[in-house]
Write a structure and sequence with these properties.
The protein has about 60 residues and is mostly helical. It contains 3 helices and no strands. It has one domain (about 5-55). The protein has helices at about 5-10, 15-30, 35-55. The longest helix is centred in the C-terminal third of the chain and has 19 residues, at about 35-55. The radius of gyration is 11 Å and the shape is elongated.
């Protein structure tokens, strides 16, 4: 999985972000420990969750 930046996350819909979050989680779980892919997936999850948290509560 490629890194999802904060800029990219901000340009996506909430539904797309939830799909990307699931994809990033699966990539994180499947990647070997200590790998760049695992770090990218973890950072992607962080960026996506940050963007979701800045949106209207309860949506």
């Amino acid at each position: 999985m490629t890194l999802v930046s904060r800029f990219e996350a901000a340009s996506r819909s909430t539904a797309e972000l939830h799909g990307l979050l699931a994809e990033a989680f699966n990539a994180f779980a499947a990647a070997p420990r200590g790998s760049q892919e695992r770090r990218d997936a973890l950072q992607s999850m962080h960026n996506i969750e940050h963007e979701l948290a800045t949106r209207a509560p309860g949506l």
